[in-house]
Design brief:
This protein is mainly α and 139 residues long. The protein has one domain. It contains 6 helices and no strands. The chain is globular, with a radius of gyration of 16 Å.
Length: 139
């Protein structure tokens, strides 16, 4: 559902904000419906069950804390269902997964300047997840 967005980021192009927000809202609704089902019934079709990483990355690009928190909640619900059998700790898994997804998000950007701008904007919205931008000009 967001494959084009991911490909555009690699080209240095940001998605149009209004369209992205609408697409995110539709995808979130679909994802929430799927997560409410028993895990055995979750389907792999991304048009019905959007990928959690793409949904989270789309939320980051909206620069809307509420959408980011909703995407994190859906990610937590999905991880919880996947981890029930393993009996692992959800909080640690959630933190690890979120940090990994954030770093993978920044890796999508081919344009270093655009990546830095994204990091700075997101640091303002969610400082607990995004550390300060390091000045690498003196390294």
């Amino acid at each position: 559902m967001f494959s084009e967005m991911v490909a555009d980021l690699a080209k240095g192009t940001l998605p149009e904000s209004t369209l992205l927000r609408k697409r995110f809202d539709v995808a979130l609704t679909k994802k929430m419906a799927v997560v409410r089902l028993p895990a055995a019934f979750w389907m792999d079709d991304s048009k019905i069950n959007p990928r959690s990483d793409h949904l989270f990355w789309a939320a980051l690009l909206t620069f809307d804390r509420q959408r980011i928190d909703l995407a994190l909640a859906v990610l937590a619900a999905e991880l919880n269902e996947q981890r029930k059998a393993a009996g692992g700790g959800l909080q640690q898994e959630m933190e690890t997964t979120t940090h990994l997804l954030i770093e993978r998000f920044f890796d999508l950007f081919a344009d270093a300047k655009l990546c830095r701008e994204m990091r700075e904007k997101l640091e303002q919205i969610m400082p607990e997840w995004i550390g300060p931008v390091k000045d690498t000009t003196h390294d």
